[in-house]
Amino acid sequence: MNDYLEEFSSLTRELLDSDPVRRMGTWRHHGPVTTLDHSLFVAYCSYRAARMLRLDVHAAARGALLHDLYLYDPRDKSAHPGNQCLDHPRAAARNAGRLTRLTDKERNIILSHMWPLGGALPRSREAWLVDLVDTVCAGLELTRVYRPERLRRKLGVEPLIAA
Ligand SMILES: [Fe+2]
Ligand SMILES: [Fe+2]
To answer: pLDDT tens for residues 112-155?
Structure first.
């Protein structure tokens, strides 16, 4: 592991080893990419960008890792109230709040990550950053330019498949 991966791993290890985060490996988010692999990709890229820009690496890494912790099949219309675009950041914030003590900044990173399509307005530089990184990572995943499962293997995170 390089120094950046080591630091990212130490900032997020408690979450990486948790059942809710590993359970994101159950569902596909973008094409063949699971929600777990997507979240790890967004979290690591947000951490690297935050480190480069001298922002809050802790909030960027944790908020990004939990931004899609909605824990249901997005294709199952009965799993959420209505519009997935609006519903999933709220479900993710609720699940993340049960998993760990979220700061206001981390909670806003999760709630605002779909802006301007829906949800809250980003209220920190870290929230703006994660919003942008999420969009870029989604594009790289959908076009198959990058396959983020390699990152998960390097970090030693095993998906947990929900029944
Ligand atoms: Fe999302
Ligand atoms: Fe996302």
So the answer is: 999 999 889 999 999 999 999 999 999 999 888 888 889 999 99
- Ligand 2 centroid to 56 CA: how many Å? 19
Unique residue bearing structure tokens 């003590």:
101
CATH among 1.10.10.10, 1.10.3210.10, 1.10.3720.10, 3.30.470.20 for 3-71+79-155:
1.10.3210.10
Please, which residues bridge with residue 28 across strands? 34
Q: What are the strands, taking DSSP E only, across the chain?
A: 28-30, 33-34
Between the CA of 54 and the centroid of ligand 2 the distance, in Å, is 23
pLDDT value for 160: 94
Overall pTM > 0.90: yes
Q: What is the radius of gyration, based on Cα positions, of the chain?
A: 14
Could you tell me the end-to-end alpha-carbon distance of the chain, in angstroms, rounded to an integer?
A: 32
Token couple for 135: 């969009």
Ligand 1 mean position, distance from CA 113 (Å): 6
pLDDT of residue 80: 80
Sign for the pseudo-dihedral over CA of 68, 73, 79, 85: positive
